[in-house]
Amino acid sequence: MMEAKQRILIVDDEEAILFSYRELLQGASVEVDGCMNLEKALALIRANSYSAIITDLRLSHSESNEGLQLLRHIKTHRPAIPVIVTTAYGSDAIKDEVLASGACGYFSKPVRIAEMLRVLQEMGVPAGRF
Question: Over the stretch 32-81, which tens digit does the pLDDT of each residue have?
């Protein structure tokens, strides 16, 4: 019997990043879903079981932090799912808030993919093509 694939959800408002992450993380035992906004992310989380979620902090090219809202929602409703937050607008204060809210990882963009893969591997998600 085949082992079920693990799933990762990528939430980012830049299509190029969704594409890149999918290409880099999807492998023989990992499937990657992607979406560009908070509403779609919440719908996917309700409909699927994820091994990890990677979300950008800002999802609407604005000053808002929908990624933080998403993280808090996940930690309230699906606390077992590890969440990694990425941002191009980071600061020590934001990093502290993200980690205090329950994120397993925090990366400033551009993200070093080797680091992201290492964190996912530590969480038990065999992401990437090795």
Answer: 999 999 999 999 999 999 999 999 999 986 678 899 999 999 999 999 99
- Does 117 fall in a domain? no
Query: What residues make up the domain containing 49?
Result: 6-109
Q: Report if residue 121 sits inside a domain.
A: no
CATH number at residue 85: 3.40.50.2300
**How many Cβ atoms are within 10 Å of 46's Cβ, its own excluded?**
9
d(CA 130, CA 128): 6
Q: Are 7 and 109 in contact (CB under 8 A)?
A: no
* Residues 98, 46, 36: CA angle, nearest 5 degrees: 60
Cα torsion through 128, 71, 62, 91, rounded to 10: -80
Number of domains in the chain: 1
Q: Indicate yes or no: pTM above 0.85.
A: yes
Report the candidate in 36, 87, 42, 85 with the shortest Cα–Cα distance to residue 59. Answer: 36
